[in-house]
Structures are given as C-alpha cells and as structure tokens.
Amino acid sequence: MNEGDTDQRREAAAAIRAMGNRAIPHLIARLAPRDGRHREFLRWLDRHTPSMRAGLPDRHISVEAERGYAASALGVIGPAAKAAVPALLTASLETNSFYAVRAKAALIQIRREPTDELTLPRAETGNLTNWLERAEILLALGSNIQASADTMVAAIGTNTAEEFKILEELGRNNRDPDASVMLLRGLLKDSNWGIRMNALNMLIMQRAFARPARPDILQCTNDTNAGVRANADYALLFAFPKQPTSTGARGSHSPQPK
Questions:
Q1: For residue 60, which phi and psi values (nearest 5 degrees)?
Q2: Residue 27: which of 143, 98, 106, 111 has the closest Cα?
Q3: Region of 142 on the Ramachandran plot (φ > 0 left; ψ -120 to 50 alpha; else beta)
Q4: CA–CA separation, 190 vs 185, rounded Å?
Q5: pLDDT tens across 11-67, in order?
Q6: CB 3.0 to 4.6 Å from 177: which of 75, 80, 145, 209, for a disulfide?
Q7: Phi and psi dihedrals of 178, rounded to 5?
Q8: Distance from first CA to last CA of the chain, Å, rounded?
C-alpha cells in the first residue's frame, strides 16, 4: 500500500477495507513496540551486499516502518477501526516521526476529523523541517502535494550556498523519508550537475522509500554530465533494479510489490 505503484496502492487499500474487522486485531498487534535489532541487522545486510542482491527487492523494512504501515492500514479501514484509537494516540506521541505521523493520519481518518488546517507551510528553506513533517502527514492521508513539493524545490534551488547541506539533510532524514524523496526527485533536475549527482547519492541512502524515483533516475542515465550518468547507472544496478513481474489478478503483468 505504501511502496507499490498507483494501481497497486489502490488495490491494496481496497483489500484492506474488504478485510475490515477481521484485520483490526492483527493490525493493532503490529503497532506494539518490539526489539528491532535483528531486523536492523538484516537491513544492514541488504545495504552492504549489493553484488549478491542485484536485481532483487529489499527483503526487510525497519520495525518502525512496519508499525507505521500498520497504522496506515488502520486509517484505510476508517471509523470501523475505532478500537485502535487508544493505541494510535500513544503512537502519535512517539519520537519516531515516520511512525508517529502515520498514527496521526490514521486518527484523522478513523475519527473523520477535518483536514483544513493541514495545509503545508510556506516554501522556505529555513522552514524545511516543518514542511517535511506536515507533508508526511498529508502523504499518509493520500493528498497530492506535488505542486507544493515543486515550489519547495524551486526555493531550495535559489539558495546555492545551502543546497549541498540541504541535500545531505534530505538523504539522512529517516523521520520523513517519503517527503524527502519528493524533494530529491525534484533536485535531480537542478541546473547544477553537482546537485544532480549528489541527489542520486541521497536517493540511494533513502533506498527503501525511494523506489518511486526510479523513472527519474532512469532519465539521469542520459544526463549531459558523465558523473551524473555514472551515479544513475550505479543506482539502477545496485539500489533500484527493475522489479520482476508477476501475473496479476486480472491477468496483466505488473511490478512485483515489495
């Protein structure tokens, strides 16, 4: 639901709604905190054995990402998942922003709260943290924030002295990775080849959340700069290989979800 293409996300959301009450106890159980050290070790292997895993999707996500996705699934179920409200309220106060914002979004969906006050802050580089946090909640709610992301990318692009610093912040941001990836995708079109080259590096760092950027990375293989082309080739080979296909429910071939 969070990492597939548009059709896969739509189908996943429909499947979760169809499960309804049967899914709720299992999803609430997945909200519970647990030791993530074993999972982190497996993720470390995913990142550090690219030659052994070329062509394969990442097999593991962090425990906090899994908890966040469980919260999103409860939000998709909507008011019928009201039994999850106490657990989601606790989750919304957690320090892990990836998990917390999805819990906040799920509470909005379950309680059918108005979203008028969730507009994005003004696009300013000094306001990047607030923009990312608010954008993450809106993304979890399924909002289309592309226009606002483009505006923020334009604001970043006018501040050359801070561009590399901002790029590094976006690459290392594990609090709001989906929103960070939206900005990194925009920075792949920056007029400065150094920015484009480093944006590719930062997308690789956001690997588990940057799969939607694969078409943009593919375009970078035709970049006018050799360094950008080389980074794009590396990213496609080791971090974002083409996913194997499988026959879907309607008999058509579609990318295999992670």
A1: -130, 145
A2: 106
A3: left
A4: 10
A5: 888 888 888 888 899 999 989 877 767 767 776 676 666 555 555 555 667 778 888
A6: 209
A7: -65, -40
A8: 10
72 backbone φψ class: left, alpha, beta (φ>0; ψ -120 to 50): alpha
The answer to whether the beta carbons of residues 256 and 225 sit under 8 Å apart is no
What's the whole-model pTM score? 0.75
Alpha helices in 78-157 (DSSP H): 85-91, 97-111, 128-140, 146-157
Number of alpha carbons in the 13 Å side-chain half-sphere of residue 177: 24
Report whether 106 contacts 84 (CB < 8 A): yes
Range 130-169 burial, b when 16+ CB lie within 10 A, else e: ebbbbbbbbbbbebebeebbebbbebbbeeeeebeebbeb
Contacts of 20 (CB under 8 A, 6+ apart): 77, 80
In the numeric block, the tokens 């990492």 are attached to 3
The amino acid occupying position 24 is I
Question: Would you kindly state where each structural domain of the chain is located, as residue ranges?
Answer: 1-113, 126-246
Which residue's structure tokens are 């999803």?
A: 27
C-alpha torsion sign, points 142, 148, 154, 156: negative
pLDDT in tens, 239-250: 888 764 433 333
Nearest CA to 2 among 106, 60, 73?
A: 73
Q: Phi/psi at 80 (nearest 5 deg)?
A: -65, -15
Query: Rounded to whole angstroms, how far apart are CA atoms 81 and 73?
Result: 10
